[in-house]
Amino acid sequence: MSRYARSFDELEVYRKSLELQQLLFETSKSFPREEMFSLTDQLRRSSRSIGANIAEAWQKRRYKAHFVSKLTDSDAEQSETCHWITTAKMCNYISCETYAVLLEKSREVGRLLGSMINNASSWCDRS
To answer: Going by CATH, does the domain composed of 2-122 fall within 3.20.20.70?
Structure first.
């Protein structure tokens, strides 16, 4: 697994987190102006933190506990992102179709993170 990736930006989970981040950024441009400093900001921040924490985890993979801790932070941000996506749907800022797509993309990142967490030893530096 990790022996094939030389840096965090080669990881599938990182790439998918960036795709989600950009999709949410574009989607949130249509939110009402009054949501700029609340829902829009929260959604953008949480989605951007997913990839940032993956990048930090990669640099901490020498120590399994640190690696898992940062991946867990990333997964928590992914869950928060799901909450904000649901909130956007409840406020009728996104369609049912957009909601389903966004939620599935976020959950896919969560599944990949879960796999990395559960198999952390295979990702960590053993030197």
So the answer is: no
